[in-house]
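Hello,

Our lab assistant flagged a job as stuck in the queue for most of the afternoon. It eventually completed. Since we weren't sure the result was trustworthy after the delay, we are filing this so someone can double-check. Below is the sequence as submitted and the structure that was eventually returned. Let us know if re-running is recommended.
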Amino acid sequence: MSSNASVDALRTHVSELLDRPECDAKEIQVQHLLISFNSAGIPGISRTQEEAEIFAGKLLEEIQGGAKFDPLVKQHTDDSHPGVYGMTTGKPAGGVYPRTGMVAAFGDIGWRLEVGEVGVAGFDPRTSPYGWHLIQRLK
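-- returned structure --
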């Protein structure tokens, strides 16, 4: 798939996920792979915003083609591995964060995924300011 096709597929994926209803779980656990860019405020990132979006689209293709998520996180995340976070709509405890304590898009996508499913929170200056979050729901 060309980079333009990858970006188009990525944008369609994000839009379709946001059209889904959220599940009613009080707590979820996700693992994420962050693809950031040079002006998002994370030191040491050299790729442009356009390059980051293309790369996120290619990684989504790999995952949809059967690539295992954790090795991709280990190899490519611009955050720290393993990138596993618990989130709750209730009272946080034991390393679980309040949903509102995370980047908004993180929960917006996490609560729309089935356990085991991977989705992408697209870059948005308000809800996902650090780039693209490829998210796998673990629990």
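-- support follow-up --
The delay was a queue issue, not a problem with the job. The result is valid. The chain has one domain: 3-137. Residues 34 and 105 are 12 Å apart (CA to CA).
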